[in-house]
Amino acid sequence: MLGLSDQVCNRYENAVSRLTVSRLLHICEVLQISPVEILYPVVPHLWGEAESEAEVRKSIIDKLELFDGPTLTAILGFLQHLQIKQWRTAMIRARRKPRPDHRRGATK
């Protein structure tokens, strides 16, 4: 199925050899699973600093995989809109912060 000899499989299982990214992706294609399904249980911290954050991100990824192309395009557009809105809000807040008075002899 994977085109690997028993010896090679044993080397991977016993951590004698390291699995390459291309081999991992090939395995995912053959098994018809996402690389996230293999990686998340092993290294969940890659999805968030806290366990709850990692679980939320993983849940979002799982749900996104269910949508078709046009829906994903719409979701991406919405996320980009939110990101721009968040950036603009941050810029407005930065402008409203009082600036220190650096003039010579200025007192509070």
From TrEMBL:
Annotated HTH cro/C1-type domain residues: 10-38
UniProt keyword terms in alphabetical order: Plasmid
Protein name from the UniProt record: Helix-turn-helix domain-containing protein
